[in-house]
Amino acid sequence: MTTLDLTPDELLTTTRTVRKRLDLERPVPPELIRECIEIALQAPSGSNRQAWHWLVVTDPDKRTQIGEYYRQAVAAYLESSGAAGRLYADDPDRAPVQQRVGSSVAYLGERMGQVPVLAIPCLTAKNLPAGNQAGLWGSILPSAWSYMLAARARGLGTAWTTLHLKYETEISTLLGIPEEVRQTVLIPTAYTIGTDFKPAKRQPLDEVLHVDSW
Question: Left if phi > 0, otherwise alpha if psi is -120 to 50, otherwise beta: which for 3?
């Protein structure tokens, strides 16, 4: 196993959502994906249930079909008022960043089916409880993030997206996912074009940090 020379802080702050810099031509060894998932399975889960499953899609036809569902979902998203490229339009600092994000979303929307590996972490949940669902989804989302960190350390890029869930039923049918198993996030995975990712600009800490009270 060869990993990038990153400190823990560098790994945490440079694991970016990668869309335009995914290498769509370079195959990803299955054993590398297995390594990433093996690490992801060390994440916490409620009551240690470990009711997770990981579905890895590499079949070209299935990737193409998922890509088409994703393309349709992205097209609808880009027309919505909540699309990334439309947010903070009056903020001269944030608007350009948001427009670049919108452009990269559109780019991946047209190419999702070409990404060599599509990873879908799933969770067994016969019923979605009313009210607080934090415990439910908190039992799979840390695992998904751990996968993305492990991928970054190995020179792979990933993106966190849930737009495919507009067609969750159709994709579940395509992949034979049991009715009681829920898809969570779709993580396209590929080698990156270059590995020189940097921390993103974020809101200042003191604007979002609250100590003892709001």
Answer: beta
From the CB of residue 47, how many other CB atoms can be counted at a distance below 10 Å? 8
Write the CB contacts of 53 (distance below 8 Å, at least 6 apart in sequence): 121, 122, 123, 124, 181
| pLDDT per residue as tens digits for the range 169-196 | 999 999 999 999 999 999 999 999 999 9
* CA distances for 91 relative to 199, 200, 205, angstroms: 21, 17, 19
> Residue 33 has which token pair?
């994906």
Q: How far apart are CA 140 and CA 5, in angstroms?
A: 28
| Residues 109 and 153 sit within 8 Å (Cβ to Cβ) | no
pTM for the model stands at: 0.95
